[in-house]
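Here is the promised in-class demo. Please do not try to memorize the tokens; focus on the logic of going from shape to residues.
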């Protein structure tokens, strides 16, 4: 199995993120990302929600919950968070 570092640019579009993390869950590869990449995903999700009219506090909470759930869902496939 190979390891691939997934950057914000490949994790940000939701369909692409879902597809790549689904492959990881199926043990097609071992994904890694850094805390900076994680933070970038939360930031972009929050900005998107604010632009859609969601209040800032709610957008921040929803973004954090979504990104944590997406990345935790791949944890069964040996996800490594690079600090």
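The designed amino acids, position by position:
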């Amino acid at each position: 199995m190979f390891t691939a570092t997934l950057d914000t640019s490949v994790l940000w579009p939701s369909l692409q993120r879902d597809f790549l993390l689904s492959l990881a869950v199926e043990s097609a590869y071992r994904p890694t990302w850094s805390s900076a990449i994680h933070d970038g995903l939360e930031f972009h999700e929050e900005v998107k929600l604010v632009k859609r009219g969601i209040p800032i506090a709610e957008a921040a909470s929803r973004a954090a919950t979504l990104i944590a759930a997406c990345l935790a869902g791949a944890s069964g496939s040996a996800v490594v968070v690079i600090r």
